[in-house]
Amino acid sequence: MSAIEQLFSLPEYSIDNDKKRKLLLSELNVLTKFHYSNCLQYKNILNNLNINPETELDNIEAVPYLPVRLFKTQKMQSIPDSEVLKVLISSGTSDQQVSRIALNRDTSLLQVKALASIITSYIGNKRLPMIIIDTDATIRNKSSMSARGAGLVGLSNFGRNHFFALDENMNLKVDEFIDFVEKYKSEPILIFGFTFMIWQYLYKKLKHLNKKADLSSAILIHSGGWKKLLDQAVSNEIFKSELYDHFRLKKIYNFYGMVEQVGSIFMECEEGFLHTPNFAEVLIRDYVSWQTLSAGENGVIQTLSILPRSYPGHSLLTEDMGTIIGIDNCRCGRKGTYFTVSGRVPKAELRGCSDTHAETVLSAGS
Amino acid sequence: MENLEKLKKAFSESLEIPPEDINDALSYGNKSWDSVAHLALVASVETEFDIMLASDDVIDMSSFLKAKEILGKYGISF
After folding, report:
1. What is the pLDDT of residues A174-230, one digit of tens each?
2. Is there a contact between A108 and B62 if contact means CB atoms under 8 Å apart?
3. Mind listing the domains of chain A with CATH numbers?
4. A120 to chain B nearest CA, in Å?
């Protein structure tokens, strides 16, 4: 059985990290070679960095990594345009440039399978009545899709009788929401939405109206980042405790993920830590030396994923800071690396060191 | 209506493809069958046969041929 088949056939979060890293490494080596041969920009970057893709790397830390920002300035694609099934577009909040990620059928199917493996390990294989805290306008564009839309569609596979709870002006359909919860009160409901939107358009709205809804058996999955909420001094802890107080909502899972690596998301566990699934790994790097850091040390998050087949996104340096908490020994019982995200890399730090790896790669690629 | 016709109808209506263009080779990524259309397809198949598919079957249903195979698990034969 090939490495990728093993990673997909073993139960989610069950693989000892040493074994998992060996399996990931053999697949990542294949991907580095594939993208080198099929994406000219990627080939130029590796050539400029004097990296030979034919070298069989013996550790995951040595896999070349690209700054995620590169996908905003370059067309990074390893397939002919005729094979492009869908283009994903990042939300692009802080600056106007957006990433454009071209997916082919293979990559798209792998993303869906990986996400299924992760999500069903949390909620089971039975599809649940589902409330989406968003407007259905988000998924209407056929040829390209926003990161938000991709998240909604991906998660919708695990639900049924989908109810989009917001209108196009982001107003909660209050009565329909209450009716939906009432209608399915005898079974768990799956609720999905973006962190900020759940806080602003669901929680705050119903609190303001002083309307309660019993979500004690519901499961909430949310993502999208904390920046906007931290501006309002709302931490993950406050988010959870307020939703519990108002809705009796106990099962709340955040996940960390990015449009450049859709599918291999990092789900929060019951202990509050983000877990690496079978298909992915994280490394933490010091932003001056770019050396990998040990558990407990804060640095820039690098994410590795075996899913990207249509673009060279299998090893990315993010612009987020984080800390590995431990490996294989989380109290929740899941194997693998678990970590926390502390926020964005300060802009000054990225600009500050002129000879950083990030900038070397950026200039090599331009 | 025969099961095969019912399945073709479900595919045809949700993917907006004429029934005569639906055959075993039709698979995810062809024509209008993308991730959004897939959600409509699942709902349509469930309504047509009055069943509820499990998550792994929703994910695995990546071709017309595969759909027939999966429906077999729900006691629907072709």
Report:
1. 999 999 999 999 999 999 999 999 999 999 999 999 999 999 999 999 999 898 898
2. no
3. 3-74+266-365 (2.30.38.10), 111-256 (3.40.50)
4. 8
Q: Predicted confidence band at A90 (pLDDT cuts at 50, 70, 90)?
A: confident
Q: Give the count of alpha carbons within 13 A of B16, CB side only.
A: 6
The answer to whether A265 touches A286, Cβ cutoff 8 Å, is no
Asked if the Cβ–Cβ distance from A142 to B36 is below 8 Å, we say yes
What are the extents of the domains in chain B? 3-72
- CA pair distance A107, A309, nearest whole angstrom: 5
Contact B35 A119 (CB under 8 A): no
Does any CB of chain B come closer than 8 Å to the CB of residue A87? Answer: no
CA torsion A310→A312→A313→A318, rounded to 10°?
A: -150
Phi, psi dihedral angles at A25 (to 5 degrees): -60, -45
Q: Answer whether A19 touches B (CB < 8 Å).
A: no
Residues 6+ apart with CB under 8 A from A122: A219, A221, A253, A267
Cβ-proximal residues to A193 (8 Å cutoff; 6+ apart), any chain: A132, A133, A134, A202, A222
Task: Report chain B residues whose CB lies below 8 A from the CB of A139.
Answer: 36
**Within 13 Å and on the Cβ side, how many CA atoms surround B43?**
15
Contact, A111 vs A139, CB < 8 A?
A: no
Residues A299, A293 contacting (CB under 8 angstroms): yes
Rounded to whole angstroms, the Cα distance separating A234 from A240 reads 10
Report the residue from A105, A113, A153 with minimal CB separation from B29. A105
CA atoms within 13 A on the CB side of A253: 22
- What digits encode the pLDDT tens for the residues B53-78? 999 999 999 999 999 999 999 999 98
Q: Establish if A127 touches chain B: CB-CB under 8 angstroms.
A: yes
Cα–Cα distance for residue pair B24/B36, rounded to 1 Å: 21
3-state secondary structure of A296: coil
* pTM, rounded to two decimals: 0.92
Q: What's the CATH architecture for B3-72?
A: Orthogonal Bundle (1.10)
ipTM surpassing 0.85: yes
Answer yes or no: do A153 and B52 touch at CB < 8 A: no
Element (H, E) at A231: helix A227-231
